[in-house]
Specification:
By secondary structure, this protein is α/β, with parallel strands linked by helices. It has 2 domains: 40 residues; 214 residues, Vaccinia Virus protein VP39 (Rossmann fold), CATH 3.40.50.150. 44% of the residues lie in helices and 16% in strands. The protein has 8 helices and 9 strands. The strands form 2 sheets. Strands 3-2-1-6-7-9-8 form a 7-stranded mixed β-sheet, sandwiched between helices. A two-stranded antiparallel ribbon has the order 4-5. α3 runs parallel beside α4. It starts with a helix and ends with a strand. Bound molecules: S-adenosylmethionine. The site of S-adenosylmethionine has 19 residues, from α4.
């Protein structure tokens, strides 16, 4: 019995050590790929003083290089059709888009959708929360408050639907607006920022839905798509760039494209 336990303990330890090593190697290879990428493709990082406090006050995963892309897209919008953001989290990127709309005197409507971490399970443990699902409400309320606080007059309609359901309602159904009332998402769009689920199948469906609505000359920004990342969104962005239907404006470091 003792030998049996020893043997299994030994294999478990070996497995754990191997995994630890694998993780270390993967992390090292990620940083190496990133370093090489930055050596040849230094992202353009612009400064925007009005956003300095916002970036401290509103939590999020905003990639510094996106500032250049969003500024560029909004400055060069060739239409007054709406903008679409998939994946707002607490509203950092949303407020950044709204900031540039105001800066360039553009009145384009901003549609947003996020399911506010709807994949959290009741039993997940988050500090003293009785039910982990309360965190979804917390995040959604934070988003609403962050938009209301920093851009109270914004031309924005927001949904809490999964992106598939949001697109299913397009041109068809009235859905709840998080800022009050309801709305029907409709028509074409001039710029899409895709930052929802980064797994290939999800990102691809988001792209296919966006592609049907995006006007010629419209802009497309894929989050987490830089060549050194391992996300499905990277695989997808590369395919879109190669499709011949989009011009790659820049990898900054993530794929920023314009529809032909
Ligand atoms: C990386 S965060 C977005 C970060 C945000 N854009 C920022 O810069 O701070 C991804 C968000 O996508 C949302 N999300 C994930 N899968 C989704 C889906 N299928 N439909 C809608 N939202 C989704 C998550 O709830 C999460 O808030």
């Amino acid at each position: 019995m003792l030998n049996y336990l020893k043997k299994h303990y030994f294999y478990a330890l070996k497995f754990f050590k191997l995994n630890l090593q694998k993780n270390k190697i993967m992390r090292f290879s990620y940083f190496l790929k990133k370093a090489v990428f930055y050596l040849f493709n230094k992202p353009i990082i612009i400064k925007e003083a009005e956003l300095d406090y916002l970036k401290i006050l509103v939590p999020g995963w905003f990639e510094p290089g996106h500032l250049y892309c969003i500024d560029y897209a909004i400055k060069n919008l060739n239409s007054d059709k709406p903008i679409l953001e998939i994946g707002t989290f607490a509203g950092l990127s949303t407020n950044i888009i709204l900031h540039f709309l105001k800066k360039y005197n553009k009145n384009n409507l901003l549609y947003t959708t996020d399911w506010y971490l709807n994949n959290i399970k009741d039993e997940d443990k988050i500090c003293d929360l009785n039910n982990a699902r309360l965190a979804c409400d917390y995040l959604k309320e934070s988003f609403i408050r962050n938009v209301k606080t920093f851009h109270p007059k914004a031309n924005i309609l927001s949904s809490d639907l999964a992106s598939d359901d949001f697109f299913a309602a397009w041109d068809k159904n009235e859905i709840k607006n998080l800022h009050g009332g309801s709305f029907k998402p409709k028509g074409e769009i001039s710029f899409a920022y895709i930052d929802g689920n980064h797994a290939y199948e999800f990102a691809k469906r988001d792209f296919e839905n966006v592609d049907k609505l995006l006007i010629s000359g419209g802009f497309l920004l894929f989050d987490d798509s830089a060549d050194y990342t391992n996300w499905g969104s990277k695989k997808l962005a590369k395919e879109v760039a190669k499709s011949g239907n989009y011009t790659l404006i820049r990898k900054n470091p993530h794929y920023f494209l314009r529809k032909k």
